[in-house]
Amino acid sequence: FKVTLVSTSPIDGQKPGTSGLRKKVKVFKQPNYLENFVQATFNALTPEKVKGATLVVSGDGRYYSKDAVQIIIKMAAANGVRRVWVGKNTLMSTPAVSAVIRERSGADGSKATGAFILTASHNPGGPTEDFGIKYNMENGGPAPESITDKIYENTKTIKEYPIAEDLPNVDVSAIGITSFEGPEGKFDVEVFDSADDYVKLMKSIFDFESIRKLLSSPKFTFCYDALHGVAGAYAHRIFVEELGAQESALLNCVPKEDFGGGHPDPNLTYAKELVARMGLGKSDTGGEPPEFGAAADGDADRNMILGKRFFVTPSDSVAIIAANAIEAIPYFSSGLKGVARSMPTSAALDVVAKSLNLKFFEVPTGWKFFGNLMDAGMCSVCGEESFGTGSDHIREKDGIWAVLAWMSILAHKNKDSIDGDTKLVTVEDIVRQHWATYGRHYYTRYDYENVDAGKAKELMEHLVKLQSSIPEVNKIVKGIRSDVANVSSADEFEYKDPVDGSISKHQGIRYLFEDGSRLVFRLSGTGSEGATIRLYIEQYEKDASKIGRESQEALSPLVDIALKLSKMEEFTGRSAPTVIT
Ligand code: VG1
Ligand code: CO
């Protein structure tokens, strides 16, 4: 192939957010839009690192992925990349990409040093919906802010990019290596099925035999909903072939370019079919719900965990996994190096860390901050309230890993009851037992999607301004509800990375109450239009007689305060949030 230099000019708005660049497909399809961003990334990595490299290019298979993969292959060839690894049909979950970077070796011993992941995660897909792209580094984790800042700077000055225009499109449906000859030598594209690498890794972490035994018991029933995302490409292999689940346990496990028209976000609002099956919907499907249910998002890094007629909050989920990991999961049998959560995630994990005497870290939202801790051997298990849970087996959150972690805990707790006449220890039993031991963190998140960006900014400025006088805040709070604790402090969360000392500012506005309750306000960094305001509300209850309340009811005084303190309706014109989780 030949290399052509194409002239281009900067395009506005290519700043990567919490997890890459996410825009409407029609924005990505503008001339040079994708190319500018990809070249800005190559330039940020520096030409020396790009030349001769092996890169992974794949994603959740959403609409426009097939075109994008071919463009990136041609640009990689022209930039001197030696090899591109592509998942069959461009499919590779975000956790599988991380695993492939860390674990896979090519036939000649080659190792990947980075990846372009093509996904907008939980955002809908299709010609009128979202596409996205992010870059992951040599450790398998998202590029740190120092790199994403450089990428953004580069998008503002870009003048040209090289591309191998005459390189034929590679058939991404056929497994195998295609080789080309370029001006600087050989260039290979290898198509493979990443499920092999991913299954191998999962088997090295969990005791598949004990999970298989659990799944074979008539007492234990299971349902998994991939919401037509890329998790479907792994679910059959793992749950049915390896662990012996019934075919009928799999819902929406065929990956689709538009996620079947749905919103591939595993929560009580969007995972409607699963929610109905689990007996949690407005109209249940009838019949006895399964004992255990789970769902994934588009790129399969998120998970939702459900019991029969029972919802497990993601903040509780990570705390429960941490509390049981050493006993239930072979990978952790020698202990946990530490645990971490994102700032808005509830403090349920903090209580476990304290009780088990574990190192504990609170980081800003987004997975990139956990990676440094893990690389330094300081963290084993971590999670976010946004349905993200994971461990140091890779450097991304991992939806299927979380399901296997829960299955391991269930298998462990039911070791003796699985064959005999004793009752199954259910998901709900495990959670209630956890609350009885550690106390319960009532928790909810309100999302106001696609509000006017200017108004959202004003609301945040208003909340920061209020923070200058805590007595004034308390006067307002007490005027709204007299039955809540005092606000003891308020700030904007700032994080100093304990490994590299880098500082991240403006990571969310916090109001902290004397009894441990919290209100947190943030603007989303993953939307593609307008602004999304996230409001996180949390209250800690240690009194065992008060841990069984309905969470929206328990939190209603704090919700009232949050909405009035922030003047939510006044600024946004919204009387109710778009989604409550
Ligand atoms: C959201 C979540 C955050 C998560 C991020 C990426 O970010 O709140 O916890 O890490 O999505 O997840 P934001 O900035 O919109 O709040 V994913 O599954 O979209 O890669
Ligand atoms: Co995701």
From TrEMBL:
Alpha-D-phosphohexomutase alpha/beta/alpha domain mapped to chain residues: 14-161, 196-306, 315-416
Pfam families the UniProt entry points to: PGM1_C_vert_fung, PGM_PMM_I, PGM_PMM_II, PGM_PMM_III
Reaction catalyzed: O-phospho-L-seryl-[protein] + alpha-D-glucose 1-phosphate = alpha-D-glucose 1,6-bisphosphate + L-seryl-[protein]; alpha-D-glucose 1,6-bisphosphate + L-seryl-[protein] = O-phospho-L-seryl-[protein] + alpha-D-glucose 6-phosphate; alpha-D-glucose 1-phosphate = alpha-D-glucose 6-phosphate
Protein name: phosphoglucomutase (alpha-D-glucose-1,6-bisphosphate-dependent)
Entry keyword Metal-binding: yes
NCBIfam families assigned to the protein according to its UniProt record, in alphabetical order: PRK07564.1-1
Keyword Isomerase: yes
Signal peptide as annotated in the record: none
The EC number(s) this enzyme carries: 5.4.2.2
Summary of subunit composition and partner proteins: Monomer.
Source species: Brassica rapa subsp. trilocularis
Family: Belongs to the phosphohexose mutase family.
Keywords: Carbohydrate metabolism, Glucose metabolism, Isomerase, Magnesium, Metal-binding, Phosphoprotein
Cofactor requirement: Mg(2+)
Protein purpose: Catalyzes the reversible isomerization of alpha-D-glucose 1-phosphate to alpha-D-glucose 6-phosphate. The mechanism proceeds via the intermediate compound alpha-D-glucose 1,6-bisphosphate. This enzyme participates in both the breakdown and synthesis of glucose.
